[in-house]
Design goal:
By secondary structure, the protein is of the alpha/beta class. It has 5 helices and 10 strands, in the order E-E-E-H-E-H-H-E-H-E-E-E-E-E-H. Strands 1-2-3-4-5-6 form a 6-stranded mixed sheet. A 4-stranded antiparallel sheet has the order 7-8-9-10, with no helix packed on it. The protein is globular, with a radius of gyration of 15 Å. The termini are far apart.
């Protein structure tokens, strides 16, 4: 089974919880897509859905804008949450961070990633960010596509296609 819940969406913060259950895993796999919320707001939103930040297996950051990335460093620092993102997104994020010691697993367009019961397929999208990626999440035959912030680069992409 695969389900999702939007924890927040908009310029004040974005976060989507993806949960997956499979026979091969004792507990559900929980993936957070983006974390543009403060840790306090994230904890409250997760609590409404019956879980805590410690229940998260990983967070996938789609791009470095603060409404998608703002709470990731605090989440990793306090809960040890694994972070996945593109090399470009991570470099842009770390250029603004003050020697925080954060680490990330690097994802790439078309590279399959397995996190617990969820298989992720990141794909590139046009946006005014360093190297934005969006996702298709798969558990067995169930698929969920997550696409946010398609803008700022669409005109360029369409021009390149001519």
């Amino acid at each position: 089974m695969l389900r999702f819940s939007s924890l927040a969406s908009g310029s004040s913060g974005n976060a989507t919880l993806v949960e997956a259950w499979s026979r091969d895993h004792e507990r559900p796999t929980r993936l957070l897509v983006d974390c543009g919320l403060t840790l306090r707001r994230l904890k409250a939103a997760l609590a409404e859905r019956g879980c805590t930040p410690s229940d998260l297996d990983a967070v996938f950051v789609t791009h470095e804008h603060s409404d998608h990335l703002g709470g990731v460093l605090a989440l990793q620092r306090r809960h040890g949450t694994a972070v996945w993102t593109s090399a470009g997104t991570w470099a842009a994020a770390m250029a603004r961070a003050v020697d925080c010691g954060a680490t990330a697993n690097i994802a790439a367009h078309g590279q399959r990633i397995t996190i617990g019961a969820i298989e992720l397929l990141p794909f590139a999208v046009p946006h005014d960010a360093a190297e934005p990626l969006q996702l298709v999440c798969r558990v067995g035959d169930a698929r969920l596509g997550i696409v946010t912030d398609l803008g700022g680069g669409i005109e360029v992409a369409s021009e390149l296609g001519r």
